[in-house]
Amino acid sequence: MQYFFFHTAVLMTMKNPPTVRQLFFKPYRPDRIYYTWEWSGTLQGPWLTVTGDPPDPLPCGETKGTDKDAVQPRKFYRLKIE
Question: CA 57 to CA 7: how far, in whole Å?
């Protein structure tokens, strides 16, 4: 199992409700298995499971995940892939 820290990612705030964030990252690799993603306030952890929708591939080659509890001023995300 590897951890992937997003290098190419876009974080978008949803208008309703304002605490929901959508994270888009690429490239999506169909030959890999994407597991539950996690967040932390620091790179040292502790790492907690994101409350929201798991990463989901989009037709454009990106992957979208939703964080439904993004109230912290700073979050680091990581994704387990195999």
Answer: 17
Query: Tell me: the pLDDT tens digits for 7-36?
Result: 445 555 556 566 777 787 777 778 887 777
Measure the CA–CA gap between 20 and 22, rounded to whole angstroms.
7
∠81-69-14 over CA atoms, to 5°?
95
| Cα gap 15→45, rounded to integer Å | 29
pTM, 2 dp: 0.68
* Domain with 74 in it: 2-81
82 close to 5: Cβ distance less than 8 angstroms: no
Q: Give every CB contact of residue 38 below 8 A, 6+ residues apart in sequence.
A: 47, 48, 49, 50, 77, 78, 79, 80
The number of distinct structural domains making up the chain is 1
